[in-house]
Amino acid sequence: MKLIEIHDLSKSFGGVAALSKVTVESLEGETLGMIGPNGSGKTTFVNIVSGHVKGDARTLRLCGMNIAGMPPNQLAAAGLCRTYQSVRVFSNLTTQLNIDNARLLLDHRGVGHAELRELTEWLRLDLLLDKDAGSLTLFEQRRLELLMRLVLKPKLIMLDEPVGGLSVTEVSEMIKLLHQLKSRCSIFVIEHTMRVIRELADRVIVLIAGEKVADGPPSEILQNQRVIQEYLGNAHA
């Protein structure tokens, strides 16, 4: 079953094209990666699909539903949510209150108490529930942000640089968690860390200057000469 269908997505800022007729489709259960240089339009793509920015598209669907123009809260109810390059938690609230606030978005339609307990333990946050989120390490905050999305029972989570700022050991741990996440929902991931793309993605989209220039399995994309010349030569290993 097709999960997302995006045809001819375009966006300009002040007359400068950030995206130009980008077409992306994915299947349910598929992990889709997106790579490209800074300024290539990756975050703009996620911002539009997740309802934070308006764009123009011939088709914008989630599981066959037209989601064009939907705000983030309606998209969350439909099964699509996202994380951010800079982690976003309520720093002055406890871990537990962050989770409770996230659950309020869907009320009874989110996860139940037993599933919430299992998710909290899986993400190793069960011993941190009484701590202020601002006192957690970056890796703990990233896990909390992920939990705050999972309580909404998403069909698709869009992750914008999920290992940004993490140590080498933490990157390995996050990759392991994201592998396990695949059994819970579909994943769309933007990353500059090629290890994440190689190990997680079933298929990779490449954006350069707002245009889709390649689409295929990681092994093929990482050997594409244009991708190597215009991006991978400057990308983080």
Which features would summarize this protein structure in a list?
six-stranded mixed beta sheet; globular; 25% strand; four-stranded antiparallel beta sheet; 2 domains; alpha/beta; 34% helix; 237 residues; Rossmann fold
Poorly predicted runs are none
The first-level CATH class of the largest domain is given as Alpha Beta
Tell me roughly what share of residues is in helical segments: 25-40%
Question: Going by CATH, what is the homologous superfamily of the largest domain?
Answer: P-loop containing nucleotide triphosphate hydrolases
**How many E strands?**
10
Strand order of the largest sheet: 6-7-8-3-9-10
| Total domains | 2
Can you write the helix and strand succession as a string? EEEHEEHEHHHEHEHEEHH
Which structural class should the secondary elements be placed in? Answer: alpha/beta
In whole angstroms, the N-to-C terminal distance is 34 Å
In angstroms, what is the radius of gyration? Answer: 18 Å
What integer is the average pLDDT? 93
Strand content: 25-35%
CATH architecture descriptor name of the largest domain: 3-Layer(aba) Sandwich
Sheet bearing the most strands, described? 6 strands, mixed
Instruction: List the total number of helices.
Output: 9
Dominant shape: globular
Question: What is the fold named in CATH at topology level of the largest domain?
Answer: Rossmann fold
